[in-house]
Write a structure and sequence with these properties.
Distance between the termini: 34 Å
Largest sheet: 22 strands, parallel
Shape: globular
Helix content: under 10%
Length: 678
């Protein structure tokens, strides 16, 4: 049920060689970050040459691994139809300029493992990457694997008959898996998200005929994952069609240590074991405070009453969960729709579901009817119905029939505003129960009928942030850059923001102090609010010739801020030789500048040390800053912290946006009293 989690170990080598490799990799990264590279479109095709420049089809590269070794932020690798060895990518894009590998045709096949891991495509130690449109079948372990990464998207891919998993992730944060097909995994699951990877989005996938779970999420609190919380939080699992899984056991959607997440608008049918399971085996806690809303779950097989566990399983301390607006039916001879154990009942709510009269409060060991279940305070407004009552064609078409009792029978609180097919909710007198909302019958016939808002002569949507779907005006998905401020967008241009803020990715943010593209390496930051104290350090390569790097003459600027909101510090330490032990001191070789001010008259900063380490790497500067005062400082939210050091001219600066708590290092943790980033 838990599967096999990712385990990361260094290559086979002695400690000294491993340390040298790490140092060399860090040095190469620093040099790369110090150089601004213009984004490019590259091409890969069968018959190409890795000795070519890759900038056109005529000069295309031959291998994906070559492309993966040279791409930079903003680069797009276009892959032509053909068969290829997979690739291993450990280079990162940025939020504004991701690295993209896209199949330009419909038949781009990965027919060999990548050569480094036993997977087709492997993205590891890389952020802001898009993998789009590949066919990855019959690989040794995973079709596509993403590990120790953040903001990676895998979409429009087909992963079939792979050894363990179709799509797998470990220690991957903000991972989006959308519009893929994952089927026929031989040992385990179609889609597997593991190792405390928070905020995954699993959307619009077709997941079928996998040996174990269709979709499995596992927080994994094992000792081999120190520094992580053992939970997957804030997941969104929506609009997936999941069938034919679980011959070897498992669930259509399996959640081990999954918290504060939403599972909505999914269709699950013909699965041999369970529907949706919320529990704890490997996770740090049970799966708590989740919402299971507007799903259609028909468990088991219509021609075999011995197959099928429970539509919804909740156990092992999985408290605070909410199950509403779902269609639940089970073909098993006595298993039913909801099984919960006593440890998971605190905070549990369930209502407005289409059910059958089989429930359990002891984890499925015994069964009670609907009346006994309702006497416990559950499913007061739920109703009994069979597939023939509900669907257009039970077993093959799960849209609601014209007379379905699920029509308008749901509750509005927490219900999604669209259905599995992204058609609008509600239509008619209320929200329908299940994954599909029955749409207006006469939409598009040229006549204006009751309930129609658009799509007929004389009807249109007045709000530019809506569109017409099924003769109803529904909110459009916000598109950054379309000049319309919609949904959660704060801006489309800087004029939309308050004075002093800039528009970045359609959010109004505090402008960054440093835009050089140079990233702080070996960073550290600790701040206390009362009394104020600060320790921060870092290093960076600032390309020579230096324009203003001379702390004695020009001073330095130390900034700790966030894209949004108050807090942090912004202190400029002026130049000037020390007078009465306050100011800058320089060593005899002119390679170390030290600022001292025991009173902390400049924003509480008491000591700054800047070292010129060009003897190691040309242009390399290292620094440490210490501050202390009796004042109280406002600390930043640890989920959004930026550190900046300006060492000379405005362009001679380095900055770092820290990852949030639970993210991969460099990351921040903290409270209103203390901020710690490493």
């Amino acid at each position: 049920m838990g599967g096999t989690d990712v385990r990361l170990t260094p290559p086979s080598a002695g400690p000294y060689l491993w340390g040298v490799r790490v140092a060399l990799c860090s040095l190469v990264l620093l040099l790369a970050l110090a150089t601004s590279v213009r984004a490019a479109d590259y091409f890969v095709k069968n018959g190409g040459s890795d000795a070519a420049d890759g900038l056109s089809l005529a000069t295309a590269w031959a291998t994906l691994n070559h492309a993966a070794g040279v791409v930079n932020p903003g680069d797009v690798v276009h892959v032509e139809d053909g068969s290829y060895q997979g690739f291993y990518l450990d280079r990162s894009g940025t939020g504004a300029q991701p690295i993209t590998f896209v199949a330009d045709g419909s038949n781009v096949q990965i027919t060999a493992d990548n050569g480094t891991t036993p997977d087709g495509i492997n993205v590891e130690g890389a952020d802001h990457v898009v993998i789009d449109g590949f066919i990855v079948n019959d690989r040794t372990r995973a079709g596509i694997r993403v590990a120790v990464a953040s903001f990676v998207t895998v979409r429009n891919c087909h992963t079939g008959h792979n050894g363990h998993w179709g799509i797998f992730s470990g220690h991957a944060y903000d991972f989006t898996i959308e519009n893929n097909e994952a089927y026929g995994s031989i040992v385990e699951h179609g889609i597997y998200v593991s190792n405390s990877g928070d905020r995954p989005i699993i959307r619009g996938n077709l997941v079928h005929d996998n040996h174990a779970n269709g979709i499995h999420m596992n927080g994994d609190a094992s000792e081999e994952n120190p520094g992580e919380d053992g939970l997957i939080s804030n997941a969104v699992v929506e609009r997936n069609v999941i069938y034919g899984n679980g011959a070897g056991g498992g669930s259509g959607i399996n959640c081990d240590g999954v918290t504060d997440s939403v599972i909505q608008n999914n269709l699950l049918y013909d699965n041999s074991a369970s529907g949706i399971s919320l529990y704890k085996i490997d996770g740090a806690t049970g799966s708590t405070n989740n919402v299971v809303v507007n799903n259609t779950i028909v468990t088991g097989l219509s021609n075999d009453a011995s197959v099928g566990r429970w539509c919804v399983n909740i156990n092992t301390g999985s408290t605070g969960n909410r199950v509403v607006n779902n269609i639940l039916y089970n073909y098993h001879s006595w298993h039913g729709v909801i099984a919960i154990d006593v440890s998971s009942r605190p905070g549990f709510t369930s209502d407005y579901n289409s059910v059958m009269s089989r429930f359990s409060t002891d984890g499925g060991n015994t069964v009670m009817d609907l009346a006994s279940w309702q006497a416990l305070g559950y499913d007061t407004y739920s109703f009994l119905a069979t597939p023939s009552d509900l669907f257009l064609a039970p077993g093959s078409d799960f849209h609601l029939s014209q007379t379905s009792p699920a029509i308008d029978a749901g509750m509005s609180v927490g219900a999604p505003n669209e259905d599995l097919e992204q058609a609008p909710r509600p239509v008619g007198g209320g929200f329908d129960v299940g994954a599909y909302e029955r749409q207006l019958l006469h939409c598009g016939d040229g006549n204006v009928d009751p309930g129609e808002q658009c799509g007929e002569p004389g009807l249109s949507c007045a709000d530019p942030c809506t569109h017409c779907a099924g003769c109803t005006c529904v909110q459009s998905t916000p598109v950054c850059g379309d000049a319309l401020v919609c949904g959660s967008e704060q801006c489309e241009a800087e004029a939309d923001c308050a004075a002093g803020q800039v528009c970045e990715a359609c959010a109004c943010v505090n402008p960054p102090v440093c835009t050089s593209g140079i990233t702080i390496a070996k960073p550290g930051l600790t701040m206390h609010a009362t009394p104020f104290s600060l320790r921060t350090k870092g290093q960076a390569i600032v390309p020579k010739p230096w324009q203003g790097v001379d702390p004695l003459a020009n001073g330095v600027r130390v900034v700790v801020d966030a894209p949004d909101g108050p807090g942090g510090i912004d202190v400029t330490i002026p130049g000037g030789a020390a007078v009465n032990d306050v100011g800058w001191f320089v060593n005899a070789s002119g390679t170390r500048w030290t600022y001292r001010d025991g009173a902390g008259t400049q924003g509480g900063i008491t000591k700054v040390v800047v070292r010129d380490r060009s003897s190691h790497v040309d242009g390399l500067l290292a620094w440490s800053v210490t501050g202390k005062s009796a004042a109280t400082a406002t600390l930043l939210d640890p989920s959004a912290v930026r550190s900046t050091m300006v060492l000379g001219a405005a362009s001679e600066c380095a900055s770092l946006t820290w990852n949030p708590p639970g993210g991969v290092r460099p990351r921040c943790t903290g409270t209103a009293a203390k901020l710690a980033c490493h």
